[in-house]
Amino acid sequence: MSKFAFVTNTDSNTISVVDLQTKEELKQIDIGESPRGAMAIDKERGFGFVSNCAGNTISVINLLEGELEGEIEVGLAPRGVDISSDNKWLFVANSGSATVTIIDLATREVVHTINVERNPRQLQVSPNGKYVTVPNFGSDSMSIIEIDDFDIINSKNIANINLGKNTRPYHAFPSEDSQLVFTANTFAHTISVISIADKKVIKTISVGYNPRAVITEPSGKYLIVSAEASNALCIIDRESYQEIKRIDVGATPRGMDINPENNTVCTTGFQRNHLFGNPSLGSTDASADSLTVVSLDTLTRVGNLPTGLGACSLKILETEDVVDGDIIEATLNSVLA
């Protein structure tokens, strides 16, 4: 089975489909206006969901056909999207409405809306399926939504945790055991470590300038942070909570995802060289409007992959993990011909 990276291209209003084995961009799927957060993938039904920040909608991508199937209206300026661990619910952060929309994936209908604080961004569902962690960029806070899977309309915001003045959190990522949440604080140049049980910050880590995303990796040794104004990925040791290495990736890195097959991390290059007509802008020419690949074994940059314009976020999909994955693989590869 193949692995594909689905990349949201903000400036070309498309999703790039990149084959991680052949290192080729297979196609670009036209979607809505100004797509932002990483695509959420419904693995049981074979669909992807992408937020259209300028269109107040969620685009529905039919992975079996490799094309846009429709749109779902949500709140104002949707940003982050994620799917529940049981594949029943889609959660959408509406940055302009200060709400989180819950969509039933079986019917694609909005079933509940929950108030959070100002300007929520890239939310995430905890691995145990009990919580949605929501960074509120405009309120310097993080909300914790408790999911009631038996009656979804009873799901509620149980905490708004203050992260400190002018932190401006952009991304919240729960730990593997669902005990902690890590937030990328864009203006404070820090990562907050938050206890879900205690509902408070227990540690603050200094990183590079303007962190946009923070993720963990399979070995459990590191946090990986995309520091867009430092043109770098910051590697944090999880035992000491200290930065141990900074890897130059160029071109304003934002979204990230792990490819466990070869133990690499891919990050998007959001810097828009195409807007300036100067391909030499940035610390590494090839990294703008592309994916940069970093080895987690050597903690070094090992290559670049092509995308569309304004590459913002990405999601890696292994077709073996998806219903009708062999059909999806054949469909996506066939468009290269």
Structural overview:
The protein has 337 residues and is mainly beta. 4% of the residues lie in helices and 51% in strands. The chain has 2 helices and 28 strands. The strands form 7 sheets. Strands 3-2-1-28 form a 4-stranded antiparallel sheet, with helices on one face. A hairpin with a 4-residue loop joins β5 and β6. The radius of gyration is 18 Å and the shape is globular. About 3% of the residues have low confidence.
Low-confidence stretches: 276-284
- End-to-end distance: 19 Å
Mean pLDDT: 90
How helix-rich are the residues, as a percent range? under 10%
Into which percentage range does the β-strand content fall? over 45%
Largest sheet: 4 strands, antiparallel
Structural category: mainly beta
User: Regarding quaternary structure, how should these chains be classified?
Assistant: single chain
Question: Could you give the topology of this structure?
Answer:
Blueprint: E1 3-9, E2 14-19, E3 24-30, E4 40-42, E5 47-52, E6 57-62, E7 67-73, E8 78-83, E9 89-94, E10 99-104, E11 109-115, E12 124-125, E13 131-136, E14 141-146, E15 156-162, E16 169-174, E17 180-185, E18 190-195, E19 200-206, E20 211-216, E21 222-227, E22 232-237, E23 242-248, E24 253-259, E25 264-269, H1 273-276, E26 290-295, E27 300-306, E28 311-318, H2 325-334
Antiparallel strand pairs: 1-2, 1-28, 2-3, 4-5, 5-6, 6-7, 8-9, 9-10, 10-11, 12-13, 13-14, 14-15, 16-17, 17-18, 18-19, 20-21, 21-22, 22-23, 24-25, 25-26, 26-27
